[in-house]
Design brief:
Helix content: 40-55%
Distance between the termini: 53 Å
Largest sheet: 9 strands, mixed
Number of strands: 17
Structural class: alpha+beta
Strand content: 15-25%
Number of helices: 15
Radius of gyration: 26 Å
Length: 438
């Protein structure tokens, strides 16, 4: 059969010159930065650990694609911005991705990856969470001197089908799942997919207990602090923390008893606002016990008054410190976790939970967690002190990974001829050097 060369695509002339385009450039990729993902992965040993955790009944002699290769393929693709399995029907031929995952041939297609994902179950999710936690521990060269603050938060994962575990949630006003995330200093420890009818704190106590046990096995003297919003203010959680020497700083919903105790400081804030015309924030601590509590606990109130009126907020804590520092520096710092969740959901597609069974959906969320771990390592290690040191993972992808390149491969060498007009060549070189295994 004759191979016909397609006609070039004609465009309007540019300064009197004919302008045309065609798909005859050879092995060219738009993802030249995938080699940075490979470097970060080799430094961490992340996907190898994940593949070992997922080792199951596959007979490798009967399989064209190895398990580590498929794990890398999915994780790297998510980091590069390819959210769906369908993307892999074309992406499997991309020379940069093939090189990054360590293959010279066409990678697995969407159907192969789908069959692999559908066999995932609860035990696989537990083992992958262990990989995330062990990666976190291994990232410290010496025991942490500062306290480890474990940020817990729940969010919604919209569902658009009849998946297992999808329920209507009144607060979010839609059908969804209710995943639980746990971060520590920007690093992801837990991405637990829960049914949409779950209580916001469902299984949070068990997760906290397991994390505390493992972290203290690694660092017996480490100080652990549990931080969460008002949805995690449960007597069982607080009592467990007190019995096990775990600090806590948790939001607590406003009620009549708290409002009565805070009235003097609220009145003072209102008077100060009326006198100055400026927004006022005053802070005070007092002892308080809810009806379900067996003891008094320290509550901090933020007495805020502005032109819009009073806006009091309360937290309960067993930490030492002045009220203003506890609220503004310790509690409000949990807002950064919400940015990390946005990275998971928006930039790394953790909400692509369209499988019918809950096991594969949990696996997809954990694949996004692995992709986040790679990009977080690049941000923390390779980009420290640079203009992208605090960039979102989507920004890192755009500026360091989405680089055009010609890929030349032979029996002795693989060469990526990256775009000469890349504006961040020096930063790319620095990142590559910093990601080399020690």
């Amino acid at each position: 059969m004759t191979n016909c060369n397609p006609k070039p695509i004609r465009f309007a002339n540019c300064k009197g010159r004919l302008m045309e385009a065609g798909f005859s450039g050879g092995d060219i990729t738009s993802d030249g930065g995938a080699v940075l993902l490979r470097a970060a992965d080799r430094m961490l040993g992340l996907t190898d650990s994940a593949a070992r955790a997922l080792g199951g009944p596959r007979r490798q002699a009967s399989c064209l694609h190895s398990l580590p290769t498929m794990v890398r393929q999915r994780v790297y693709a998510l980091a590069l911005g390819y959210e769906d399995l369908n993307d892999h029907d074309e992406l499997r031929s991309d020379p940069a991705l093939q090189t990054a995952v360590g293959a010279d041939a066409v990678l697995a297609g969407a159907s192969t990856l789908c069959r692999f994902e559908r066999r995932m179950g609860r035990e696989d999710a537990v083992r992958l969470h262990e990989v995330l936690i062990e990666q976190f521990i291994a990232s410290f060269k010496r025991p942490p001197r500062k306290r480890l603050v474990l940020d817990f938060d729940a969010t919604d994962d919209p569902a658009h089908g009849m998946q297992e575990g999808r329920f209507f949630h009144g607060y979010y006003d839609r059908y969804c799942f209710l995943p639980l995330y746990v971060f520590c200093g920007g690093r992801l420890l837990v991405a637990y997919l829960r049914p949409g009818n779950s209580d916001g704190a469902r299984h949070a106590w068990a997760v906290l207990a397991l994390l505390t046990k493992r972290l203290r096995q690694a660092w017996p003297k480490v100080k652990i602090v549990f931080r969460g919003d008002g949805g995690f203010c449960r007597p069982r959680m607080l009592s467990w923390c007190e019995r096990n020497d775990v600090g806590y700083i948790v939001g607590i919903g406003r009620n009549a008893a708290l409002a009565k105790k805070a009235k003097p400081i609220m009145d003072l804030a209102e008077l100060a606002h009326e006198a100055s015309g400026e927004d006022l924030r005053l802070f005070e601590g007092f002892r308080y016990a809810a009806g379900t509590w067996k003891r008094l606990r320290r509550v901090v109130v933020k007495a805020e008054h502005s032109a819009r009126g009073a806006n009091p907020r309360f937290i309960v804590t067993n930490l030492k410190g002045v009220p203003q520092w506890l609220y503004e520096k310790m509690y409000c710092a949990r807002g950064d976790m919400e940015n990390r969740i946005k990275e998971q959901q928006l930039d790394l597609f953790a909400d692509r939970t369209s499988c019918h069974e809950s096991g594969p959906n949990q696996y997809r969320m954990l694949l996004s967690a692995l992709a986040y771990t790679l990009l977080e390592a690049i941000r923390r290690v390779a980009l420290a002190g640079s203009e992208l040191a605090n960039a979102y993972v989507g920004t890192i992808r755009l500026k360091l990974l989405k680089i055009g390149a010609v890929v030349l491969r032979n029996t002795r060498r693989v060469r990526l001829l990256l775009s000469g007009s890349c504006p961040r060549q020096a930063l790319f070189r620095t990142a590559a050097v910093r990601l080399k295994p020690g």
